[in-house]
Amino acid sequence: MSKNDIYWNPVLETLPAEKLQMLQLKKFKRIIGWAYNNSPFYRKLYKDAGFEPGDLKTRDDIKKIPKTDKGMLREVQSRAPFPYGDILAVPLNEVTEFRQTSGTTGTPVYQADTWQDWEWWSECWAYILYAQGYRDTDRVFIPFGYNIFVAFWAGHYAAEKLGCEVVPGGVLDTEARILKMQELKCSAFMATPTYVLGMADTARKMGIDPVKDLFIRRITCAGEPGASIPTTKRRMEDSWGAKVYDHIGATEIGAWSYECTSQPGGLHVNEGFFLIEIEDVETGEIIEEPGRSGKMVVTALDRIGKPCIRFDSKDVIQWADHGCDCGRTFRIIKGGVIGRTDDITKVKGVLLAPTAIEEVVRSMSELGNDYQVTVSKKGDIDDILLEIEFNTGYETKKEEVLSRLKDFLRVKVNLGFRIVVHPFGSLPRYEVKSKRFKDLRKEKDGGGH
């Protein structure tokens, strides 16, 4: 295999950084002009800020352009044309695809895509899958309920674009999906980390060993941070005897980052299609150096139906201080998404990221895959409850395991937890995005989650 055989687009993926930045600026100018001329929402936003497209001359000018956020996208939906509002930059009859956000943080946002946008989605995903080793020899199973959420829709079409054989498992239940994967000797599938682990548990209950009796070689994850958390990734890889790769995208943004087969401890930003800025949460300064966390402000450089320009994603990320052995010049975000500014919160004066709890729980083989975390107030004091399950056979070691768990949590998270153990199989199971972290203090304050 030649070096170029590992890239979907060898020219773009190995473009020198200076030329890549020039391309991004050129594309940014184009999408800004398009939005200003065709979207009443964006034109008013920019005029109110005293900005016109001609003011954008250098990359440094980008940070002066007003940001958008999910609240603005929800508000605009109250205006014509129904149901998207005047953020649309194309006539309504050019919209060919409807999707909506999952609504995990409030009212769903409706997403409009033109046919060109849908081809763009597929192309973004083609970069992801090719970088993760998918080829035309793969038979790919898609075990998600095809629905109004974007989930793996674009992954399905990108797999076809690569020449893979795609098996849609939408209406099948988990047992039927496993049997079909076994029958057809599928070599890959895509799912949330929660469902990857849940499918393995179900297979074993059926008397099927995913490692010995199935034929999966690669798994692509999305929807949750688990595949970028080393302990969770290890659980998935051990459960299936397959390589697990992460990808991050969002309905209103697109598929903006991915892990390659070199697995460099982070994810490549698809910089040919997206401009990622990392903004200091306190000062608003744009962070260029590695190792400093901030929130991601993202622009989809080629999405025309409902443009996504300087969107405040609330995702917390940081640049890595290294490149990748794969040779791609696309920069890397270290460890994927660290958390969300919505979820990273102070408990008893300590800054808490839910991903840190997952890393601890999934590091202990005695504990099951499923858990729940609830933060609440007991009088004036914060209370943090962790609900867990023991894997079968470890119930007799309860006190020893709980002692180690509390110690690990204290070291990793710097907090004491109230821990409740439930019978195996009694905590909620999820097929799509899990809802493992609840901050009831926000709900009490009217913040809602």
Number of helices: 13
Contiguous low-pLDDT stretches (5 residues minimum) are: none
Shape: globular
Q: Sheet with the most strands?
A: 8 strands, mixed
Arithmetic mean pLDDT: 92
What would you say the CATH architecture of the largest domain is? 3-Layer(aba) Sandwich
Q: Residue share in helices?
A: 25-40%
N-C termini distance: 48 Å
- The number of domains is 2
CATH topology of the largest domain: Rossmann fold
CATH superfamily of the largest domain: ANL, N-terminal domain
CATH class of the largest domain: Alpha Beta
Strand content: 15-25%
Total beta strands: 20
- Radius of gyration, whole Å: 22 Å
Which sequence of strands runs across the widest sheet? 4-3-5-6-7-8-9-13
- Helix- and strand-based class? alpha/beta
Tell me what you see in this structure.
This protein has 449 residues and is an alpha/beta fold. It has helices at 10-13, 17-38, 40-48, 70-76, 115-131, 153-162, 174-184, 193-205, 210-213, 230-240, 354-361, 398-413, 440-444; strands spanning 95-100, 110-114, 139-142, 165-168, 188-191, 218-221, 243-250, 254-258, 266-269, 274-279, 294-300, 311-317, 332-334, 339-340, 345-347, 350-352, 367-378, 381-390, 418-422, 437-439. The chain has 2 domains: 1-340, Rossmann fold; 345-444, ANL, C-terminal domain (GMP Synthetase, Chain A, domain 3). The chain is built from 13 helices and 20 strands. Strand 6, helix 10 and strand 7 (243-250) form a beta-alpha-beta unit. Helix 2 packs across helix 3 (40-48) and helix 11 runs antiparallel to helix 12. The radius of gyration is 22 Å and the shape is globular.
